[in-house]
Amino acid sequence: MKQILNILQMLIFFVVYKYCNIFIASGSLVLTSGCICLFYWIFYNQIDKINIFSFLMISLFSFLTILFHNAQFIKWKITIIYIIFAAVLFISQFFTNKPIMQTFLEKDIKIPHQHWRKINFFWLIFFLCCAVLNIYISLYCSEANWVIFKVFGLTILTLILILVTGIYINYIKFKKK
Fold it and tell me: What tens-digit pLDDT sequence spans the chain (177 residues)?
């Protein structure tokens, strides 16, 4: 359900951008992100920390985009979020006993600790690469191309990452038997 709402949020951003502009689309992003938080509050009586973080980041960068009438703010949002995610993964990889990916998923997925470290590191590299790619595309491509990359490119890359991670986990489980 969470993934569907996030994809819906990006599609609404894309459609509003296509029919209006980046500034109205940024406002719609705040509105849809707020509605997602409200949805979770009404139906589940709680809001995930990641949704609150996302709403705050979207609100901040959308506000700056609209206030200064400068699309670079909204373009940099995803880069900053991905760098924060990479930093959290890095800290858990090298400065804690348990990688954060293991902390989140170990109750549902049982694999040896060393494989969690590999998965955690793989996601860290993914977020860093996507952050750099977003910087490049936001600086050297048109706004329209950046929107397409943000909505579809990053979504497809993330789905591929999830698929590869799932294949790796299943390979480990199969090899273990």
Answer: 677 888 899 999 999 999 999 999 999 999 999 999 999 999 999 998 888 999 999 999 999 999 999 999 999 999 999 999 999 999 999 999 999 999 989 999 999 999 999 999 999 999 999 999 999 999 999 999 999 999 999 999 999 999 999 999 999 988 876
Using CA atoms, how far apart are residues 95 and 41, in angstroms rounded to an integer?
A: 34
- Rounded CA separation 4/9 (Å): 9
Place of tokens 């990641």: 50
Q: Give the phi and the psi of residue 106 in degrees, each rounded to 5.
A: -65, -25
Could you give the angle at the alpha carbon of 156 between the alpha carbons of 152 and 158, nearest 5°? 120
* SS3 of residue 70 by DSSP: coil
Helix (H) / strand (E) element for 141: namely none
Q: Which two tokens stand for residue 6?
A: 């996030």
